[in-house]
Amino acid sequence: MNSDPTSNAAGEPLKLREQAYAGYTRSLLAREIRPGQFITQRQLVEITGLPLGAIRELVPRLEAEGLIRTAPHRGMQVPQVDITLVRNAFQFRLFLEEPAVRLFARNASPDLVAALRESHERIIARHNAGDEENLMEEAEATDLKLHETIIDNLNNEIVSNAYRVNWIKIKLIRLAETRLYVPMIPSVIGEHMKIIEAIERREEDEAARAMASHIGIARQRAVSI
Hints:
By secondary structure, this protein is mainly α. Helix content is 69%, strand content 4%. It is globular.
């Protein structure tokens, strides 16, 4: 992910409203803004460093995406991490990713699948060797890359954008308690490898079952918050 909220992945300048969105989500995932926190537009100006006009344009988008809500007489509230958010976010993941992985198993290029395998094998090799420097960050990036690759293979911008908004909610849930810690790497990457192996065999049903199992296990971890 691009860490600069003023530019996109290609380094091109973003419009103010896009900068405001990137700044808000970055602050949310950096826990500078807390789940359940009440916040004002003025505070968002301070957090993002962007003008009030950009924030006013930002708020309707955040409300539409469920990343903030207006509470009468209290201002705006950041989403709370609760059982409803967990249920909704993981159910949405399942609705998107189960059919997406079927299509991926059917038509993904061998080179792309091989690259996914290689990145996962590298994580396991580092873990087994006790090389933990930035290992969790790389493992989380590898985790996300598999799912985004499967979703983006649909070539559907609406679905890809919806998936990324939902990922922000999943990340909020993980930050509450269930982040991918180093001891969990073998099990999580192992679940991914079952998906990858099914894709390599072009077994669509098996890939879908492996994906559903993986999402179900992640949801169960989240429920324990």
